[in-house]
Specification:
alpha+beta; 7-stranded mixed β-sheet; 2 domains; 8 helices; 44% helix; Aminopeptidase; elongated
């Protein structure tokens, strides 16, 4: 039947397209939907080995989505490492991802610009994998300007940058009482709201630093 063939092809296409996704969460969701459709299709036409295989894949995806969601805000999974602005590894990460990093800078700088000497620099790591970089520049009036809050594409559906803002004592120790994001990076409004920033009339975002 034509409609059944369409369902079968839809499941196959979703599975294939999911393998092209860089984002972990998006990959799992698309692969889950595709494998569920493929399971149903193969069960209807009674190809049981493929039905069983796709059912197993669907269960694996359910497990990983549950685990990823549970770990989303787990401080035991993500760690924040403060580094010097001239740290060689920090410069390597920024250079390797220069084009992508440039899209998320809130203060325009040259694409190959190194962090300023007075900036606070943080690496967000998951195990031994670097998943994000946050740069904050003291403005001299008690404000810290968030120059960069960047996450690797694999973890862009999560909010690992929030772990930097949780440790606000590091900002208070620098004499900062608020953090400011001067411009909104692409699709960042929901993220900024989640990590405690609030929009200001001029289009910037502000977050108080707890003493």
């Amino acid at each position: 039947m034509l409609w059944l063939e369409i369902v079968g092809w839809t499941g196959s296409v979703l599975v294939v397209v999911s393998l092209m996704q860089a984002r972990v969460w998006r990959f799992r969701v698309m692969n889950l939907v595709g494998s569920v459709i493929a399971t149903a299709y193969n069960a209807v036409i009674e190809i049981w080995p493929f039905a069983a295989m796709n059912a197993a894949i669907a269960l694996i995806n359910v497990y990983w989505l549950w685990r990823l969601n549970r770990e989303r805000g787990d401080a035991a999974v993500y760690a924040v490492v403060e580094v010097a602005p001239d740290d060689a590894y920090l410069h390597h990460v920024l250079a390797v991802h220069a084009d992508d990093v440039a899209r998320f800078r809130t203060v325009p700088v040259a694409a190959d610009a190194a962090p300023a000497a007075d900036e606070l620099a943080f690496l967000v790591v998951r195990g031994d994998e670097t998943v994000g970089v946050v740069l904050v520049r003291p403005a001299g009036d008690g404000s810290g300007v968030v120059v960069l809050d960047w996450v690797t594409p694999r973890f862009r559906d999560f909010t690992p940058g929030e772990f930097v803002y949780r440790h606000s004592d590091v900002f208070a120790a620098q004499g900062l009482d608020r953090l400011v994001v001067p411009t909104t990076p692409p699709n960042a409004r929901a993220y900024l709201d989640r990590v405690g920033f609030r929009p200001l009339p001029d289009g910037s975002w502000e977050r108080p630093v707890a003493a």
